[in-house]
Write a structure and sequence with these properties.
Helices cover about 40% and strands about 15% of the residues. By secondary structure, it is α/β, with parallel strands linked by helices. The strands form four sheets. A six-stranded parallel β-sheet has the order 3-2-4-5-7-6, sandwiched between helices. The protein has a six-stranded parallel β-sheet with strand order 15-14-16-17-19-18, with helices on both faces. Helix 3 packs across helix 18. Bound molecules: adenosine-5'-diphosphate (ADP), ligand TPW and magnesium ion.
Length: about 575
């Protein structure tokens, strides 16, 4: 007797995700996944439909970072898949757990290149950009495919995983009993990786012998959610720390041990540097060059053994997950064994005071039009009393000044362009959806433009997102000139006097045009109180920024004469 056929691939995918506690999907509907989006919603999952897959993927990536569960992005075949792929690569680069699930066309036709609708060999295209890539070719393998994707995304160093579901598999049907037996509930997807006690003892000795120790906290430490152990151990040692941008707030930025206001001094002077969930990549000048003391010794806590020695030799690697590592360090560090010397702390404090004074003078100035400092001061003051607010910050100068000016007071509340320098509204939506908390997205006018249409998404779902477009009329600045003398705008120039606030009104959101700190403060305050989708056009001096922001050293220059800055 033929088995009773009563479950299809669509249903199995939803069942497999739900069985593993995945309750949210970000995506764009179309062939062959339209019914998957409908079914997911019908079955109680949250589905957020975007205007572009890249934004949906950024939302999924940041949701993964914030929740430690893989964020799921669902895309259609070929172009939709490729649009999402930037976000998957971004997740891998930033160590965010994410799964991009994409429908794909007919395998037989794709493999013979016979010209199918949206034809592309997606799994192989995804491989170089993903931590792992899988394709499901039989409906009875859907459960295994989802389980493997989850393990790959969250275990060890998290990353982006690609899961290909062919149109045939989605539409296929399967006997109900066989189908339910094929599902896999993943057990312990991110197992603890406990560091060896030798590695912990070695690190303690290096730190205890240091004259001028320094801790650098990265977003791996934020991701680990080991906030209490991390803070307790750091406070017990008195070692000053520098937060990388997304680790800001892990310990509050106004903590006495925070050395952010003396960054150059501590990097130059430290004799032992302990990296906790931070890579010695371009963001730290690879640990080399004039910023760094050539004799500095390194301790590194990281879940990825392959990260060790990648840029500078690591004298004391602690390979393990940060939660286990901080527990081991707390247990193994005898009281008083590691103690930052008071001469070192005093020297740092002196530098901090000078720099804080200098910053205060800049913040106190009230130029017209606003510059980055005067506009950011408004956000700095508001956020100081609202640790629940997420701050998304993207652009070049808008990003760099924002990082320095806005203090963070709670863990994982600052989300920014990260390791790859990406921009778009996806993080703001992902943070709002996963937390329900208000989000302030401080975006350069160019940064905003990468996915400006997602304001329709924000309005459609009525998300409490306040977008502040720092409108200086360009990429970096708004005053460059056409070097050929022609009348067309210069390459970095965007439309002068654009009114971005008018855009959101088309979708029923609230727009403000802010030309001074008072009107900006009033607009943000009203927006936070109402929780309505809001876009504030912040008019910034078009000459206030610098080309490439704070990374001019990475920008090769031609013999072309540079304009005055
Ligand atoms: P940042 O940009 O803030 O400096 P990076 O993204 O460069 O941070 O570094 C994050 C590091 O944290 C990566 O090397 C990654 O392997 C590591 N990491 C991520 N999650 C964990 C974890 N739970 N435990 C230990 N290390 C982790
Ligand atoms: C996908 C190159 C880096 S920063 C930036 C661009 C285009 C925009 C800077 O202008 P913005 O900020 O946002 O107005 P501000 O305050 O300095 O004026 N394409 C991608 N990623 C990157 N990083 C770029 C281009 C870039
Ligand atoms: Mg700009």
């Amino acid at each position: 007797m033929a088995p009773s056929v009563n479950i299809d691939g669509f249903q199995l995918v939803v069942d497999a995700l739900k069985l593993n506690g995945i309750d949210t999907i970000f995506g764009v509907a179309g062939i062959p996944i339209t019914d998957l989006t409908r079914l997911a919603q019908a079955e109680g999952m949250r589905y957020y439909g975007f205007r572009h897959e890249q934004s949906a993927g950024y939302a999924a990536g940041i949701a993964g970072y914030l929740t430690r569960k893989p964020g799921v992005c669902l895309t259609v075949s070929a172009p939709g898949f490729l649009n999402g792929m930037v976000a998957l690569a971004n997740a891998t680069t930033n160590c965010f757990p994410m799964i991009q699930i994409s429908g794909s066309s007919d395998r037989a036709i794709v493999d013979l290149q016979q010209g199918d609708y949206e034809e592309l060999d997606q799994m192989n295209a995804a491989k170089p950009y993903a931590k792992a890539a899988f394709r499901v070719n039989r409906p009875e393998d859907i459960g295994t495919g989802v389980a493997r994707a989850i393990h790959a995304a969250v275990s060890g160093r998290p990353g982006g995983v690609y899961l290909d579901l062919t149109a045939d598999v989605l539409a296929a049907t399967l006997d109900n009993d066989i189908a339910s037996r094929s599902l896999v509930k993943v057990v312990d997807p991110a197992p603890a990786q406990i560091p060896s006690s030798e590695s912990v003892q070695r690190a303690i000795k290096v730190l205890a012998d240091a004259q001028r120790p320094l801790i650098i906290l990265g977003k791996g430490a934020a991701y680990a959610q080991a906030d209490d152990d991390l803070r307790a151990w750091i406070e017990s040692t008195g070692i000053p720390y520098l937060p990388m941008s997304m680790a800001k707030g892990l310990l509050p930025d106004n903590h006495p041990q925070c050395a952010a206001a003396a960054r150059s001094f501590v990097l130059d002077q430290a004799d032992v540097v302990m990296l906790i969930g931070a890579r010695l990549n371009w963001l730290l000048a690879h640990g080399k060059g004039s910023q760094w003391s050539p004799g500095a010794k390194f301790v590194q806590v990281d879940v990825a053994a392959t990260e060790i020695d990648s840029n500078r030799p690591i004298a004391a690697p602690i390979v393990g997950d940060i939660s286990s590592a901080m527990k081991s360090l707390r247990e193994a560090t005898k009281p008083g064994r590691i103690k930052a010397a008071s001469a070192w702390i005093d020297a740092i404090d002196a530098h901090k005071q000078q720099n804080v004074k200098r910053m205060q003078q800049r913040l106190d100035a009230n130029p017209s039009p606003m510059n980055f400092y005067s506009a950011l001061r408004v956000f700095r003051d508001l956020i100081a009393g609202r640790p629940d607010i997420y701050v998304v910050n993207e652009g070049a100068n808008t990003l760099d000044f924002g990082r320095n000016v806005i203090d963070m007071h709670a863990p994982r509340k600052r989300l920014d362009s990260g390791t790859w320098g990406v921009m778009g509204m996806g993080y703001a939506i992902g943070a709002a959806v996963t937390s329900g908390n208000p989000v302030i997205a401080i975006e350069g006018d160019s940064a905003f433009g990468f996915s400006g249409m997602e304001i329709e998404t924000i309005c459609r779902y009525q998300l409490p997102v306040v977008i502040a477009v720092f409108n200086n009329g360009g990429i970096y600045r708004g005053d460059d000139i056409n070097r050929g003398g022609g009348s067309e705008p210069a390459p970095t120039v965007l439309m002068k006097d654009a009114r971005y606030d008018k855009l959101i009104e088309a979708f029923g959101g609230v727009g403000y045009n802010a030309t001074d700190p008072q009107s900006l403060k009033a607009a943000v305050t009203e927006a936070l109180a109402s929780r309505k989708p809001t876009l504030i056009n912040c008019v910034i001096d078009s000459t206030a920024g610098t080309e490439s922001g704070h990374i001019q050293n990475l920008n090769p220059k031609s013999s072309l004469s540079t304009p005055k800055q």
